[in-house]
Write the structure tokens for this entry.
Amino acid sequence: MRDRVVPLALLGLGAWILWGCGGGTGMGGAGTSGSAGTTGSAGTTGGAGSAAPGRGGTTVTGGATGTGGAIATASLCTWPAATGTTMVSSTYNIGATFDGGMARFVGAGPLATSNQSESQKPLFLLNDGATLQNVILGNPAADGVHCNGSCTLKNVWWEDVGEDAATFEGTSANQVMTIDGGGAQKAADKVFQHNGPGTMVIQNFCVQDFGKLYRSCGNCSTQYARNVQIKNVMVVPSGTTSALVGVNSNYNDTATFGSILVKAAANSITICQRYTGNDTGAEPPKSGSGADATICKYASSDITWMP
């Protein structure tokens, strides 16, 4: 059996609200955006006495801005309502773009499985360059989504992850799988499995009630250096959560984090777990955890804990 993976987030709000009125006679404002007598001269922008004196700006600060540059908030975990339900008895083979219109897709017949068997077929197979968007995967969802090369999953939601939400396959070191928006929950083990080479990007995402968010395959028969970038993610752990990410240090994997908000007590879960992977199928042992600037790349400011 392969080692598993599953889910993340940082709270960083830095909203700036700027008011500027043309203003009373000769007054440009008391704040930083206006200088007296310049922008608010009488009769030019507002007319003498016709408006209140301009205000340079009022600052509303919700927290520190994460180094990743994005803003992780609890709103990422607002789950959408399905517009309908489609039963799937054979895998959708996607070569370009498939837009589900926010319908729920549920496995039927041979795809009506939701266990931990790795022999299950996916509901969606994305070929190199394909995009899957605006889709909700219900229960059962078999083995979710497979990407055979570079692909994009945009606004895709998993209501109840079975074996894996999505698996990154393919053979090119340059391939990129991008998960942008959406969310996943109820994953007994991992959410995203990385079997091929390349880079997986997980951003603007919600993960809750999971084992791991991401796992670089620890015992695949063919091993690669794999990379994962996780940014602007809201993480709601559960009792089954062991780590946000699992990577193989001996194959030079990298995991980079920014703007991660974890709704839990500080350091209650492992952010980045390192393993010594193998190509024999054996269970890989742990080899350390935490930021090390080489394999697990993040600073304390990249992770916000919110009990």
Q: What stands out?
A: Confidence is low (pLDDT under 50) at residues 1-70. The chain has one domain: 74-305. The chain is about 0% helix and 40% strand.
